[in-house]
Amino acid sequence: MADQYDFDLFTIGAGSGGVRASRVAAAHGARVAVAEEYRVGGTCVIRGCVPKKMLVYGAHFAEDLEDARQFGWNIEGKSFDWQRLRDHVQNDVARLEGLYGETLSNHKVTIFNERATITGDHQITLASGRQVTAAHILIATGARPHIPEFPGNQHVITSNEAFHLERLPRRILIAGGGYIANEFAGIFNEFGSKVTVANRSDTILRGYDEALRDRLLQIAMVKGIEFLFMAELEHIEKQEDGTLLVKLTGQEPRIFDCVMVATGRVPNSEGLGLEAIGVEIGTRGEIVVDAFSRTNVPYVYAVGDVTDRVQLTPVAIREGQAFADSVFGPGQPYAVDHSCVPSAVFSHPPIAAVGMTESEARNRLGSIKVYQADFRPMKNVVAGRNERCLYKMVVDAANDRIVGIHMIGPEAPEIMQAAAIAVKAGLTKADFDATIAIHPTMAEELVLFK
Ligand code: NDP
C-alpha cells in the first residue's frame, strides 16, 4: 500500500460491518484506523439485536412460568423486576463492547473514540481537530430510528431508549408494524404492560408471508395486544401528570404512559463530508454502492445499514468481510449474494422465513406447490396453551425446488437457520422427504409435509 497516506483504510463507524471490515483488512496486512463517536459494537450489540434478544428471553419467562404449573411445578409468588433485568442486560452489553474493542486492538487497528468527517480527498478530520489521511475510506455508520414529523413528537421514545427505561410503562403505544414494533410489543406485553400497536397501513410485517402475519396477529391479540390499522400519529400532548394524550388518525384521543415509534430506520449519511467529495446519496439518504460496496468515488466504500440494501447485521458483516477481502486480500474481488437471506422476527411467538412468500412465488414462477403444517406443539398441548405453529413450504412445480420456507412457532428462528442452508443450496422437496424425521420435534414437520 502507498505510504503516502497515514492509513491504508480508515473506517467510519465501529458497528458490525465496520468492525468486521477493519479487523479483516488488518489481518490482510493493512494499516487500519476506525472512528466511533458512540460505543464500539454499533446498533446490533449496543441497542439492537443483542440486548433485544436478552429482553425477549426475559419476557418469555412469563409464559414459561405460567406453563410450568401444568408440568407439575408450583410457582408461588412470582414477580418480575424490570430494573434487575435491564441492568443485567446493560452489564452484558458493556462486556461485549469491551470484547469488540479488544478484537480491534488485537488486530492492531487504531481506534479513535470520536466523530470523523471527510474533509478532502483521502483526508479525515477527527472531532479533536486531528487530521489523518487514508488510501481507502469505508463508511459503516449504520442507521438510526426514523421519527415521524407531527406536533408533540419530542415526547416519543425509540428502541434506543426502550433499553434504559426507569420503569415499565403501564400503557404503551407502539407506532409501526414492522420488526421492532412486533418484537417490543411482545416484550412489553409479557412484562405486563398494556400494549397497543398502531400502524399506518392495514397490515403488520409487510414482506412476510400473509398466512404467518395473520397467525401472529391472531395469537398476539389473544395474548392481549391491541392492534390499530390505518392509524398514524397526529399529535401528542403531555399532560400535567406526565401521561401522554395521543391522537391517531381515525381514533378518539387516548392516554398512554409511553409512546414508542418503530417506523423504520434512516441511513446515517449526513454530516460526514460525503457531498463535498461527490459521493452519491440516494433519495432515502442511503449511500449508493455497487455489488462490491464501491461508491462512485473510487476510494470510498460503504457497507451495512447506511447503504440500505438489507438492514440486517449478518448482511453488514458479510459486506464488511467481502470488502476487506476484495480490497486487501490476495484473491479476486467478490460480491455478497443478497438473494435468499433468511430472517426472523423475535415476536411472541417468533417468525422465521427464507426465500419467496407464496404470493411472490405465484407471481414470479406461476406454477407452484404449497405445503403446510398447522399443528399444536406437544409442549403447548401439555401446557394447555392454545397456540398453533404454522410451517409453509413453497415449491417450484416445474423442478420440485424449494423456493421458500416460512414458519411461526417456538424456536422457529433456530430451526430456520439449518433449513435456510437447504433452500440456498437449491434442494428439492424430494430431498426433504428423503430425510428421516427426528421425533418428537417441531422441526420434523419440515420433512413430513404431505
Ligand atoms: P420496518 O421496516 O420493519 O417497519 C416499519 C414500519 O413502520 C412498517 O410497519 C411501516 O408501515 C411503518 N412506517 C414506515 N415508514 C413510516 C412513516 N413514515 N410513518 C409511519 N409509519 C411508517 O422497520 P423497524 O423500524 O421495525 O425496523 C428497522 C429495520 O431494522 C428493519 O427493517 C430490519 O431490517 C431491522 N431489524 C431487524 C430485526 C431482526 O432481524 N429481527 C429486528 C429489528 C430491526 P407499512 O405497513 O406501510 O410498511
Name its key features:
FAD/NAD(P)-binding domain; 450 residues; 3 domains; Enolase-like, domain 1; 5-stranded antiparallel β-sheet; binds NADPH dihydro-nicotinamide-adenine-dinucleotide phosphate; 12 helices
In words, what does this structure look like?
The chain has 450 residues and is of the alpha/beta class. It folds into three domains: 202 residues, 3-Layer(bba) Sandwich (FAD/NAD(P)-binding domain); 111 residues, FAD/NAD(P)-binding domain; 99 residues, FAD/NAD-linked reductase, C-terminal dimerisation domain (Enolase-like, domain 1, 2-Layer Sandwich), CATH 3.30.390.30. It contains twelve helices and 21 strands. The strands form five sheets. Strands 1, 2, 3, 4, 5, 6 and 16 form a seven-stranded mixed beta sheet that branches. A five-stranded antiparallel beta sheet has the order 17-18-21-20-19, sandwiched between helices. A hairpin with a 5-residue loop joins β12 and β13. It starts with 6 loop residues before the first strand and ends in a 17-residue tail after the last helix. The model has no long low-confidence stretch (mean pLDDT 97). The chain binds NADPH dihydro-nicotinamide-adenine-dinucleotide phosphate (NDP). The site of NADPH dihydro-nicotinamide-adenine-dinucleotide phosphate (NDP) has 24 residues, from α6 and β17.
